[in-house]
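Tokens for chain A. Residues wanted.
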């Protein structure tokens, strides 16, 4: 459902969301805290910075921080910066046209699943994620040193 890159991004966000206001954290420290490969995570952090999810600053005292407060940022905001969530709006069979008027064989079953998944991502704030109030998502992003 969420790519490995998206999971690493969410793990990183849980670290950044806990920083003091105005504080930055280096990619290497975030990678260590999350068990993510440092070079790989650095690329993801830069991508999120280009997409406006994070702010970055070079030099001593620099690194990355969230561009907005964790209360106003959703899990969808993070995953969308990494994964192409538009794929969730496509036909499950890859048909070029699939709609209520011209449905594929799974359209009626796929539509509520897709809507529920995207709604869950959009309505779960980063604050909730950090607090652990959404176990469904936390099970996906729990730091694992084997990644």
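Reply:
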């Amino acid at each position: 459902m969420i790519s490995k890159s998206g999971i690493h991004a969410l793990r990183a966000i849980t670290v950044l969301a806990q920083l003091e206001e105005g504080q930055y954290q280096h990619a290497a420290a975030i990678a260590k805290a999350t068990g993510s490969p440092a070079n790989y995570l650095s690329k993801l952090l830069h991508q999120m910075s280009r997409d406006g999810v994070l702010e970055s600053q070079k030099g001593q005292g620099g690194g990355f921080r969230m561009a907005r407060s964790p209360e106003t940022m959703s899990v969808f905001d993070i995953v969308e910066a990494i994964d192409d969530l538009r794929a969730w709006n496509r036909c499950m069979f890859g048909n070029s046209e699939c709609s209520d008027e011209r449905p594929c064989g799974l359209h009626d079953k796929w539509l509520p699943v897709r809507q529920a998944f995207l709604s869950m991502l959009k309505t779960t704030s980063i604050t909730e994620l950090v607090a652990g109030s959404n176990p469904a998502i936390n099970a996906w992003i729990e730091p694992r040193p084997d990644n």
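The chain has a mean pLDDT of 87. Residues 26 and 59 are 10 Å apart (CA to CA).
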